[in-house]
Amino acid sequence: MKKVWLLGFGFFSISLTWALYNAFVPLFLDDYLKSTAAIGFLMTVDNYFALFIQPWIGNLSDRTDTPFGKRMPYLLIGMPLSAVFFSLIPFRTSLATLILFMVLMNLSMSLYRSPTVALMPDITHEARRSQANGIINFMGGIGSVLAFGVGSFLYKIGPPVPFITASLATILSLVIVASVIKEKRDAIAYPPAGASAPVRFRGELDRTTVCLLGAIFFWFVAYQGIEALFTLYGTHYLGMSDSAASFSLLFFSGSFLLFTLPSGWLGARFGKKPVITAGVIGLGACFAIMIFIDATVWLRLFLVLGGLFWACININSYPFVVSIGRAESIGTRTGLYYLVSAVAAILSPPLLGQFVDWFGYSVLFIYTSLGMLAALVFILLVPNRGLAAGTPPTLSEEKRGA
Question: Which of 57, 66, 198, 309 has the fewest CB neighbours in a 10 Å radius?
Fold first, then answer.
């Protein structure tokens, strides 16, 4: 597991960057735009790239073979570029330059997100992937905690400071990952050059996968909407300062961080579906209760509880998606995971923003509660056969049993 911990630096840099992006970029956009729906729409720029580029990159990396491996070339190109463009965002001089830097940064990140995620199952046996995903998400959680905690302090020094710091952290993380992970040595079953046949997306969409992807879509509808607009909710509805609103997210990401490793153990011990289902029910209940809360202390308390339940969902969902397919389709299934989450992230912030424009910020947690209810319906539709022990049936086993 040592290499998984070090691979976690890749997730650390991604989470650090995205947490700062989602916390502060809406505030930059708010300087130029008065429509919450328009801000929500622009916050989905990354997901348009995720919708088209990340599935293709994930599928392409399944068939890539270079001296650096299958996934590493995409990290070596994408991470330095994203670091440069991310550091330029606070130096925008107009709405046009802000959007330009956002687009270039998101395009660069879309080149390496799927390959970075796919490296985990590449170097980890199926029985240990929930724990491994807990480890790398623990590292990612540290990035989020630093973004909302230290990032808020650095933002007070000057808006460019947290962005430059995160960019330097991205470069350092690349050096660590590239130095430690040697794919042809560390991958469980690295294919010889030319041995990998193209994997078809349609061939991966069996019933179990479709139901699971449906659940993933709806819990990301809830999560992405609130992630993109929470700082505006805090400032406009609860009367918080910019830094206090972003600091409140620390309670969610902090509890998520603390429960990443236990939730990975729970998924391996009791099965991924039961743990995910408990998380969906719990997080949905937290959102429903927060509809009636307007005190900062109580809001932060339920954000803590919500982070625990989100860990149960998030830590086990990606290993679930990968484990019901074949080893040859890890990159492709990673792309499908990001495709569904990207569609949710594209639709949700502007849709929620439009509801806010119509009904006010009080609609925020009603919207997220309904999203979690729909996710619960879909996760309950995932077949139970073979899932109780935490090891779902492979695609070939499911077809044989059909």
Answer: 198
Helices marked H in 271-363: 272-290, 296-323, 330-359
Residue recorded with tokens 């190109």: 77
CB of 127 closer than 8 Å to CB of 268: yes
Residue closest to 109 by CA, chosen among 213, 231, 38, 16: 16
Dihedral-angle region of residue 81 (phi above 0 means left; psi in -120 to 50 means alpha; beta otherwise): alpha
Mean pLDDT for 52-81 is: 85
Residue range of the domain that includes 219: 2-401
Is residue 208 a contact partner of residue 385, using CB atoms and an 8 Å limit?
Answer: no
The pTM score is 0.73
Q: State the burial class of residue 384 (Cβ atoms within 10 Å of its Cβ: 0-12, 13-18, 19+).
A: exposed
The first and second tokens of residue 163, run together, are 């962005």
Question: By CB neighbour count within 10 A (0-12 exposed, 13-18 middle, 19+ buried), where does 181 fall?
Answer: buried
Q: CA torsion sign, 263 to 265 to 266 to 270?
A: positive
Q: Model confidence over 293-343: pLDDT tens digits?
A: 877 888 889 999 999 999 999 999 988 988 776 666 777 788 888 888 888
CATH code assigned at 315:
1.20.1250.20
Which residues, 6 or more positions from 345, have their beta carbon under 8 angstroms from its beta carbon?
44, 46, 47, 50, 220, 224, 228
Q: What does DSSP assign to residue 189? A: T
What pLDDT, in 10s, does the model give residues 256-285? 888 888 998 898 888 889 999 999 999 999
Beta carbons within 10 angstroms of residue 31's beta carbon: 9
**Helix pair angle (364-381, 330-359), 10° resolution:** 150
Q: What total number of domains does the chain contain?
A: 1
Q: What is the pLDDT of residues 152-184, one digit of tens each?
A: 889 889 989 999 999 999 999 999 999 988 887
Tell me the C-alpha to C-alpha distance, in Å, between residue 184 and each of 67, 122, 324: 8, 10, 24
Taking each helix axis from N to C end, the angle separating 129-148 and 242-270, rounded to the nearest 10 degrees, works out to 170
